[in-house]
Amino acid sequence: MKNSVIGYPRIGAFRELKFEVEKYFLKQSSQEELIALSKDLKEKHWQDLKSANIDFIPCNDFSFYDNTLDTAVLFNVVAQRYKALKLNHLDEYFAQARGYQGKFGDEKALAMKKWFNTNYHYIEPECDDAEVIDLVGDKIFKDFIEAKNLNINPKPVIHGIFTFFKLIRFKDEDTKQKAKEKLLQAYIKLLNRFNDLEATWLSFDEPCLVFDLNKQELKLFNDFYQELLKHKGGIKILIQSYFGDIRDAYESVLKLDIDGLGLDFIEGDYNINLLENFGFHRNKILFAGIINGRNIYKNNYKKTIDLIHKIKNYAPNIVLSTSCSLLHVPYSIQNENKLDEKYLNHFAFAKEKLQELNELKILLTSKDFNKEKFFIQNQILLANSLNKNNLKVQESIKTLSKEKCIREPEFKERKILQQSILKLPILPTTTIGSFPQTKEVRSNRLAFKQNKINIDTYTSFNRNKIKECIKIQEEIGLDVLVHGEFERNDMVEYFGENLEGFLFTQNAWVQSYGTRCVKPPIIWGDVSRKKTITVEYAKFAQSQSQKIVKGMLTGPVTILNWSFPREDISLRESALQIALAIQEEVLDLENAGIKIIQIDEAALREKLPLRKSKWHTYLEWAILAFNVTHYKVKAQTQIHTHMCYSEFSDIIKEINAMDADVISFEASRSNLDLLNALKAVNFKTDIGPGVYDIHSPRIPSIDELKNVIKKILNKFEKEKIWINPDCGLKTRNYEEVVASLKNLVQASLELRKELQNE
């Protein structure tokens, strides 16, 4: 029996890649230095896998920014506007990811979207000319050769042709149809090149197989692979799926001339039914995803081995594998020296999951290993609850229901009352919440955590920053202000630190997109609020201005989805526990005189099941959890929320049921596509579609912003629209922020005048 890994974290044990790429952006390092670091990181990662006795070691899972963008560049799926910049290869690559503003031109970045139902974001390729599609890149081959030079026989991994085709945004239908044949020929060239290099295996990642697929989509998949596999030569082909089951495509895949099929048995629990109902070919190898690639709790070996024995009843030739890439978990618990061993003993990060794969292989193949003793130790560890339970919280959530948690009066009445109090102009301007997190802000927070300064010094610094932030916003001319969130390391971690039931790490970083990494909290026990969290800073900020300052909170679904969840209770129960804690904070903010409270649900869609048949169950508790946070507030208190980098068009009706007063959306990178969906369902809530992309260093011009706002005005009445960036500003610098917001305010003022003169 052998084992395999789909992918490995690429940022490094201490985010080395992030810092080197950012240095390159700032022109503080060269291409040669960046490439040298990448080579070093790849070698370290391969050595981790080799040392853990992993048999199928992936290559090409490393990326400077994003694997989907890598695949697009490999096959020359690059929009002509980036080619026109005449940049070198690496800078053209980054221009697509971040945008470009310089002596060669001014171009926005490509759209950024959620990678299926994870917190990773991919760059959406654009194709405006199918004729140029071809195998033009060589990164995947260089990685293969690098691994071979280290005496590793790697398994190259790449987006499968079906998934990659579905991820591309095409200029029009004609371009899309032409791209099918061009892309197929490019993939054939890829196969030929790997045959020349004498590769043993090639893995085509096809996560799109876990969606609901219609006949046309299945035909496209079959057409692609029937032709592609004619050219496989001596290479063994693995089709790898993850994030769910492949019930619609299973029979089609089995008929293909492939050598291996990868199935996820963690999130795709129905895959075992597919084996039972349709069997598995004895001449094919099943890569069984039995190690959870998305959560950090240790594997229950006895439960997993029982599953493996069940799988082997139908597929005798199996390889033990991760359920998905380990990109979605931190690097190693070896880098944690502050979290108590009694907790750490329960966790397995990426490096430890390699050991789990190795130990499972030993358990299943060794005759001398004391399995019973090992099982007993494993079971005792997993059963240790360490005071996870809070009976009061458990009882409270039993009383919550959709019928009970309804805010009154209805939206139309609330809007009239709120406007009479808030007296905001048409096209009111605001930001999403955070302001730049400068080095001194981070240093102040770190010094306090390390007990180098006392609470008074720490608080005084933050208050001074809030004063500066309020002054900057007033000078810019924004209508509704924020306090800047200088006390917050992260929009989820900060709240977790102030709630019971969470654990925190030092270096458990996970890549969210590009150079953006997050350190998700671990939900360990029942959640409750132990004290007020944001009230004092919110009151202080409001005291500094005659304008309205929003209270800023993170919603329960986002806190849950951006944390590592418990595995001993349902996600619904966890979400409702967090919702009750946030509800207490909302009511305290209201009692403190805060007139607008924003409860961000940036990740509402993130855990939405990929199969529509399962949507209702998730949306029922996700919308309920948000409603729990605010249904008790007074009519005159205006509730905002924010959502970003997901496709919401197909759940707009459910978002309406959140019953917020204002919802701001990420919309700038997606060219305001969401507006048509909002219009189609007569979306009741006031909206703030993001008018510029904060994940790019570009500063939008006044005319550009006016044109964006006019597009919004063409769809909705002016009384319904708010003007804001598409997300928080913490990752930008003040020079970019101030210039962009000044243009945003000026564009709004000019349009107000035009509207008043109509």
Write the layout of secondary structure elements.
Elements lengths: L1 E3 L11 H10 L5 H21 L6 E2 L7 H8 L5 H4 L5 H10 L1 E3 L2 E3 L4 E3 L6 E3 L2 E2 L11 H11 L5 E5 L1 H7 L1 E2 L2 H24 L4 E5 L9 H14 L7 E5 L9 H5 L5 E5 L6 H8 L6 E7 L9 H12 L5 E5 L18 H4 L5 H16 L5 H13 L7 H7 L13 H12 L16 H11 L5 H22 L3 E2 L11 H5 L1 E5 L6 E4 L2 E3 L3 E8 L5 H9 L4 E2 L1 E4 L1 H6 L9 H21 L4 E5 L14 H16 L7 E6 L8 H5 L5 E4 L8 H7 L5 E4 L12 H12 L20 H23 L2
Parallel strand pairs: 1-14, 2-8, 7-9, 8-10, 10-11, 11-12, 12-13, 13-14, 15-20, 21-22, 22-23, 23-24, 24-25
Antiparallel strand pairs: 3-4, 5-6, 16-19, 17-18
Description:
Keywords: Amino-acid biosynthesis, Metal-binding, Methionine biosynthesis, Methyltransferase, Repeat, Transferase, Zinc. Catalyzes the transfer of a methyl group from 5-methyltetrahydrofolate to homocysteine resulting in methionine formation. GO terms for molecular function: 5-methyltetrahydropteroyltriglutamate-homocysteine S-methyltransferase activity; zinc ion binding. The protein has 758 residues and is an alpha/beta fold. It has two domains: 2-74 and 136-383, TIM Barrel (Alpha-Beta Barrel); 436-665, Alpha-Beta Barrel (TIM Barrel), CATH 3.20.20.210. Helices cover 43% and strands 13% of the residues. The chain contains 28 helices and 25 strands. An eight-stranded parallel sheet has the order 1-14-13-12-11-10-8-2. α1 (16-25) packs antiparallel against α2 and α27 (702-713) crosses α28 (734-756). The protein is globular. The relative contact order is 0.09. The mean pLDDT is 94.
